[in-house]
Amino acid sequence: MFALVDGNNFYVSCERVFRPSLNGRPVIVLSSNDGCAIARSNEAKALGIKMGAPWFEIRHLEEQEGLVALSANFALYGDMSDRMMSIAAGLGPVQEIYSIDESFIGLDGVRGDLTKRSRAVRDRINQWIGIPCGVGIGATKTLAKLANHIAKTAERKPGSYPESLATVCNLVNLPGSDVDAILAATDVGEVWGVGRRIGQQLRDAGVRTVLDLARLSPSLVRDRWSVVLERTVRELQGEACISLDDAPSPKKQIACTRSFGQPVTEIAPLIEAVSEFTSRAAAKLRRQSGLAGQILVFAHTSTFRQGPHFSKSIVIPLRRPTADTRHLVQAAVMGVTQIYKPGFQLSKAGVMLLDLMPDNVSQGEFDFDAPETRDRGKLMAAMDAINDRFGRGAIHVGSAVGAGAPRDWSMRQERLTPQYTTKFSDIPIARA
User: Fold this and answer.
1) What does the alpha-carbon distance between residue 392 and residue 223 come to, in Å, rounded to a whole number?
2) What is the set of domains in the chain, with CATH numbers?
3) DSSP at 397
4) Which residues contact 25 (CB under 8 A, 6 or more apart)?
5) Dihedral sign for Cα atoms in the order 242, 243, 247, 250
6) Contact (CB, 8 A) for 6 and 101
7) What is the pLDDT of residues 300-330, one digit of tens each?
8) pLDDT tens-digit profile of 1-31?
């Protein structure tokens, strides 16, 4: 048995914790470069704002409807997520953090009224950190995900589902006939893993509701669609096919890419940007105890901007697999200098760490290098610890000079709110 705890409109909810004046108002959070909407309050959804809507197309709603648009504050969202997940973990013995705002909880062995217990955890999250959540409980992860959708929809759209299912929906405790009625009232596209293309194929085949899908023969689904959809059908029928992943598999690739706030036309700021991107990717690599054998570096102009276009990438093999920021940055800078050409307005660049492997299975070899050229694990660990404590960019490699200060290539974040929980100078002060 599983539960899914999901923060409602998470990015917007994080902003509202520290700005209660935003409650009841249409609010959106914009992407990293203030390009499009990546989170919407219920009020913003009611205005017809779609996920991914470009800002330039909806900015007129600021004056017409009182829309509030904010730049993404990922430092705040990440810290609030950590706090929420810590509280959600009290629901059961095993937890899988699925995304920044979603967490699966394994409920096997948990005694008592699970619905009551879930409401208590939900209330605790709301009281302690101010994030409203929905909780869904099901015999499988797919059913728990569906139950979470029902819980949130029943709260947001009264009348869509029974009022008793709002905020916390426990499908396990419902009679079979009630479950069938709920599944029959839910579009097949709401099932976890059923995308737009597969959803349309199912509707064309007469499978319009979740109940229709759940009643299909798994073997028929496998033959007509895929093994993946067969697994989904089995999950809807109560057969657990997706295990709880409390220790996610290491990533096979690690990338860090960004669009520039202003076009980059010279190599110096390009090197600075790529050095910082590489440093971030290296820190992620060390967190999963990995090593990289190659690094890809790319840069390109905007496809929407008039003028000459440029797009080029290069893969730099490393002498030996490493997680040392210095070595990775050195390779990335080498790649930048090889692909760079003057005369172009570069809009985006990035790096990708390739050929990843665990740091405990690298091939042994005679080490004839001088000590200063060897990986320094303790130095990297100290670097990560300092940046974790004092903020990203507190310490960095020399080629990323200026990290932490405004730069021409930095993301456009004209509507960025304070980092209330992670930056000492941004802590709110209450005055009488």
Assistant:
1) 50
2) 2-174 (3.30.70.270), 178-236 (1.10.150.20), 254-400 (3.30.1490.100)
3) -
4) 41, 43, 66, 68
5) negative
6) yes
7) 988 767 788 898 888 898 888 899 999 999 9
8) 999 999 999 999 999 999 999 999 999 999 8
